[in-house]
Amino acid sequence: MLISLGDFMVGCYLLVIAIYDTAIFKRGYCQVQIKWMTSIQCSTIGVLSTIGSQVSLFAMAGLSTIRLNGIRGGLRVPGEVTLAKFLKVALGVLIIVLISAGIAITPIVGRLEDFFVNGVEFDTKQMLFIGIPKKRKILQVLEAYYGRMKDTTLSWEMILKMVRNMFSHDVGLYDPTKSVQKQKFYGNDGVCLFKYFVRSDDPQKEYVWAILVLNFVCFLFISISYVLIAFASRNSSKNLVNTENKRQIDQRNRKMNTRITIIIATDFCCWIPFIVICALHSLEVLDATPWYGIFSMIILPINSVINPFLYDSIITSKLGESVRFVSNRITRSRIFHLRLFHFGNTRNEVIEMQEIEGRQETVGSAATAGNLTKTTDIEAETNTNDN
């Protein structure tokens, strides 16, 4: 259930982004880019995406724990569901949801804005602060206006107060500090994704790397768990005699091993490239900021797309039935048989042509051999007459 919930939230995130891109913004995104990146809507869908991806990952880790516990129990059939077991599962679900929500919501908490606000947008009519300047850029302007300042990090509240004091607030005069929009954690790019790509001077780098390390540990735990499950299943099947039951168990183990391989491969493709690119970006080996769209639309949703086929037997069986139905309809269709008949006739015609060409080559070779024999006899007779 949790995995489905996480995948559903990621799917909702992708759907909302697609709607904003194709139906709302269309070709006018550049005109509203800053307004969108500083909006509450951007932060909301960013929180939705983060909760979904973290819930899905933590749920897979929890499922791996349950299956490992089954191995420790000797692969016995689980007993009846008791109130104690239900409460344990409910507590685990609650913990996963709360941790995922905490990871997603923490960056937008107002009291933590000094760690997670990347910049601010002032009124576009003023020409002093263009775009969304970061704290360092604003501090340079403040130092030029107020004179030399202590080498200290000011809070956003203090910075905005000092900026307001730079302008007149008389009635009837233009005040560019009335309209200030903060670029929060999820507004670092138009896709409103969790800010995985951080530099060494970003105040949120410790938080981001803590989450990346946590996700990497979950990936390792899931991979190791399923490898142990595969080995345990194989070893248990070796103890059985060579019967029909053993062959069924071997077939089941092969299917399970295939599923395990896909699980590990999808987790690897989802998180390992992401972590590697984040490390290279943090070390300033490359600038991965333009890649947010690729990672948010292609790399991160890999698990959400594959998980329903790995963990839901109903979806897998329905998909298999649909594939078999379509395959049977194709093989039984008149067009398929006509094409097969045409292919068979064409193949027979090719074979007949090859046989005709072979016979012609044989006749030609025989005729050439006969001509050579006649030529030899004539030369022999000529030599005899000369003698």
Written account of the structure:
The chain has 13 helices and 2 strands. It has helices at residues 2-25, 29-37, 40-72, 83-105, 113-116, 135-146, 156-164, 205-238, 244-282, 292-299, 302-311, 313-332, 334-386, and strands at residues 119-121, 181-183. Strands 1-2 form a two-stranded antiparallel ribbon. 72% of the residues lie in helices and 2% in strands. By secondary structure, it is mainly α.
Describe the secondary structure blueprint for this structure:
Layout: H1 2-25, H2 29-37, H3 40-72, H4 83-105, H5 113-116, E1 119-121, H6 135-146, H7 156-164, E2 181-183, H8 205-238, H9 244-282, H10 292-299, H11 302-311, H12 313-332, H13 334-386
Antiparallel strand pairs: 1-2
Briefly characterize the structure.
Helix content is 72%, strand content 2%.
Total number of strands: 2
Order of helices and strands: HHHHHEHHEHHHHHH
Largest sheet: 2 strands, antiparallel
The average pLDDT value, as a whole number, equals 76
End-to-end separation in angstroms reads 109 Å
β-sheet strand percentage:
under 5%
What overall geometry do the principal axes of the alpha carbons give?
A: elongated
Q: Could you list the spans in which at least 5 consecutive residues all have pLDDT below 50?
A: 372-387
Rg is: 36 Å
Count of DSSP H/I helices? 13
Kindly name the structural category.
mainly alpha
| Strand order in the largest sheet | 1-2
The percent range for helix content is: over 70%
